[in-house]
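We close this part of the discussion by returning to an individual protein. Part of our work consisted of pairing the sequence of a single chain with a tokenised description of its backbone. The amino acid sequence and the backbone structure tokens for this protein are reproduced below.
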Amino acid sequence: MPELMREGAQFVQFASPAFLVVSLIAPVGFRFRKQRWALLGFFLLVAESVTQIAGWSLPADVAGLAIVAGSIAFVERGWRESVRFRAAWIARFQARKPVTLAPPFEGRWRALGTGPSIDRNHHLAARDQWFAVDWVRQDAPSRGSRVFAPADGLIAYVEDGHPDKPARRRVHVDKEHPAGNYVSLRIKGEDCCVIVAHLEQGSIAVRAGQQVRTGTLLGLCGNSGNTSIPHVHIHVQPGERFAAGSDWGIPVVFGSKEEWLRPGATVIGGFSTEMTSFPQA
């Protein structure tokens, strides 16, 4: 029996890195949780390696077992959570007719952070942003690109004055102003507002109380708020002001599309590069 246990411990030590890698590449779980688990797993691997080199078999066995058990638990929990969120997201999308918006930009943009998969849509962590889309430009720099009103309506709220951060891979956390500089537009004929966020500081070209038409210039794409790269964040919600988790978000589709955007889908904006704004209604 001791020999069998020793062989099992050796297998766990040998297999623990593979278990950790599989748990991190499996398409389940929120990315921010994967990052935390990856950091913990890395330290456990280091501990396992150091104790093996030092000849301390018991601590090495414990570290390896912790990695294997943690990897299995992480994947199992992530799978259950992914299935539950996906079913709830699709049910809510189908329960209410989506609001149709015009792509609020010029040029070719890629949709990110959208859809019912929690490993590809970090917005599912906040219910008001369940149907949000992050847009990144493909044919030119996102930063400084013009952003237009995606619908007719009334400017309900404007927030400006937050600095833009340098583009980096890590998220710049701004807990007090996660949307950064943004515009809230109450959509004509709809009892809801579209939030257009992460605009460039000082670029917002509209004011609260202003009537606008689809295509009116709102501002420029920036990197303000909780961001990692310059992009345009859009979601529709009942309230006028951005407040993470305050209420359920509202389904949205863009242009002639009648279904939700898949992550990685590209959309070409219909606004001319010569357009600045429509006449005020």
Remarks:
- The mean pLDDT is 87.
- The helical segments are 2-25, 31-54, 57-95.
